[in-house]
Amino acid sequence: MIEVSNLIKDYGSFRALSGVSFSMKKGEILGFLGPNGAGKSTTMKVLTGFISADGGTATVAGHDVMNDSIAVRRQLGYLPENTPIYEEMGVVEFLRFIAGVRRVPRGKVRERLDTVIGMCGLASMTGKLIGELSRGYRQRVGLAQALIHDPPILIMDEPTSALDPSQTVEIRELVREIGREKSVLLSTHIMGEATATCDRVIIISRGRIVAEGTPESLVRSDEKRRGVLVEARASAEDLRGLLGGLAGVANITEKSAAADGWASCRAIFDAPATDPRETIFAAVREKGWELRELHEETMTLEEFFIKVTTQS
Amino acid sequence: MNATYQIFAKELRGFLNSPAIYIFLTVFLVLSGAVMFYLRNIFAEGAATMAPYFGAAPAVLLIFVPAVAMRLWAEENKIGTLELLMTLPIRDWEAVTGKYLASAVVVVAAIVLTLPMPLFIASFAKEATPVDAGAWISGYAGLIFTGLAYLAISEAISAMTRNQIVAYIIGATACFVLTWVSQPSLLYYMPDFLASIMGWLGIAAHSQNFSRGIFDTRDFFYFLSLIFLMLFITVRVVESRRWR
Ligand SMILES: Nc1ncnc2c1ncn2[C@@H]1O[C@H](COP(=O)(O)OP(=O)(O)OP(=O)(O)O)[C@@H](O)[C@H]1O
Ligand SMILES: [Mg+2]
Question: Which residues on adjacent β-strands are paired with residue A76?
């Protein structure tokens, strides 16, 4: 649904995007992750036709974003960063305005209005002016606005940034539900959000894509080195000795001394032939020691994120 | 067309719901009335002409029209709603025209609302001084054209800033300069070739014909082209966000 190839955007002499390429399939929920100033919003602004790129191409639903911007915008629902909306308008008045511009057929406006108001939990706010709403509710109005014409593609810039924890969970579920039929591109700073809602994530840093994949594959992308945490009833030296004798062990660090008779160590395996946990379990059982922890340490998405975005 | 209409309807509703616009309108009507009553002796003298009023009224429009136009784009720039608006399936020119037409309704309505005042004054005029309807219509047409030209200028200025006050001050100044460049006392000091250009360029040179009851199609086309030029500039300014 979205094809981006080698996109470049300069703000004056500052290069905000230096060759961003990715694609989004139909029905996919794609997460855009990246530190502040990475270029997430800039990419979305190019896709939605708000600004023009200085190089590269992008198509949305088969239409070129530069030459055929209006056709692109018809296929999109867009929630800009910080939800800029008209404060002096009423909630329903605003949604009706968007429905009018979006050419929702007259006879269907009422029904679509009820649908999005229900979906976004706005029923109790319909009598208010947007300027009177809390930030979270404004964001919901922004979301409702993006959904009113039932677009096949949704682009949302930090859709949950102003929501409280329970609202956040609600909106994530809503996004998942929307993502069943629609293609969704969303940006976020919250790793948990990416893991919970996205089929695939793209990590962007300083205008470049630095990693891409499913949330599970990203944290495992360092396949060759695997760390295992072991805790057994033995002395620390005995445990170290045992682990040191195993095939493929590169490094062992002691986590805690055996004060209560238990010792705990972390062993790093370099390209092991079999799952190192099996090897360790077999060795410990042979010794007849008791075992109370055997756990493979994967990186959290946060750790991975920090790792890829701080490399220059 | 649909998009232009949607923007027009939204902006017009915005004006009707805005307390500020009623204040501007009141000030405009009070000032217009004051100018008329100040010049009312024109009726007493039996000339039955509104020409002096039509000559002075652009100064009142100069205060009023930029106030109507100042928030058209400055507010969108400031709040960031420009991003929402311009990512809807709306072409830049449709948004520019929709906003222009909505504020034009306000400006024309304000000018029409001043009409009861000369009628009221005329009712005091001596019987011997009939109202010259042709001159009145021509004079009011001139005021409306002047107001619409000021509006187009002020909309262009509003698109260039995110600050309404700045939009107002610069807009009013620009209208002022464009009106009075054709002032004879000013042209006097200019070299001939410049004087002839300026004499043609100034809004006053063209609105004066209307206020004297002369309807010249060249003046009509002057106002039309000025308005189109200013709206075109507004479109380009709104577009320029893409490249910044
Ligand atoms: N209008 C602008 N003029 C100049 N520089 C800009 C402009 N907009 C963005 N930038 C710069 O471009 C870079 C990318 O900005 P962008 O808003 O795309 O980042 P982001 O990934 O969305 O960040 P955040 O997570 O903070 O929202 C930043 O360094 C920013 O300072
Ligand atoms: Mg951003």
Answer: A153
Q: For residue A248, give the amino acid letter.
A: G
pLDDT in tens, A240-289: 888 888 888 888 887 776 568 888 888 888 877 788 888 899 889 998 99
Residue A111, exposed/middle/buried by CB under 10 A (0-12, 13-18, 19+)? exposed
Closest by Cα among B70, B75, B79 to B103: B70
CA-wise closest residue to A305 among A227, A202, A161: A202
Q: For residues B204, B210, B216 and B221, what is the CA-based torsion angle, rounded to 10 degrees?
A: 60
CA dist., res. B51 & res. B44, Å (int): 14
Q: In whole angstroms, what is the distance from residue B66 CA to residue B169 CA? A: 8
Considering every ligand atom shown, identify the ligand nearest to the alpha carbon of residue A38 and give its number. Answer: 1
Question: Is residue A201 a contact partner of residue A218, using CB atoms and an 8 Å limit?
Answer: yes
In sequence order, the β-bridge partners of residue A184 are A29, A154
pLDDT tens column, A175-226: 888 888 899 999 988 877 888 889 999 999 999 998 898 887 777 656 667 7
Tell me the whole-structure pTM to 2 decimals: 0.86
Give bridge partners of residue A10 from the DSSP assignment. Answer: A15
- Residue with the nearest Cα to atom 17 of ligand 1? A41
Please choose, from the candidates B65, B60, B103, B57, the residue with its C-alpha nearest in 3D space to the C-alpha of residue B207: B57
CB A171 within 8 A of CB A119: no
Query: What's the DSSP call for residue B190?
Result: S
Smallest Cβ–Cβ distance between B84 and the set A70, A85, A93 belongs to A85
pLDDT at B46: 52
Q: DSSP string of B205-242? A: HHHHHHHTT---HHHHHHHHHHHHHHHHHHHHHHHGGG
Put simply, the answer to whether A49 touches B13 (Cβ < 8 Å) is no
Q: What is the pLDDT of residue B243?
A: 79
User: What does the domain layout of chain B look like in residue ranges?
Assistant: 2-240
B71-84 core/surface letters (b: 16 or more CB in 10 A; e: else): bbbbbbbebbbbbb
Query: Which residue's CA is minimally distant from atom 22 of ligand 1?
Result: A41
Q: Choosing among A87, A101, A109, which should be mutated to test the B contact, i.e. which has the most B CBs within 10 A?
A: A101
Q: Which residues of chain A are at the B interface, by a Cβ-Cβ cutoff of 8 Å?
A: 11-12, 45, 48-52, 70, 73-74, 76, 78, 80, 82, 84-89, 93, 97-98, 100-103, 145
This complex has an ipTM of 0.89
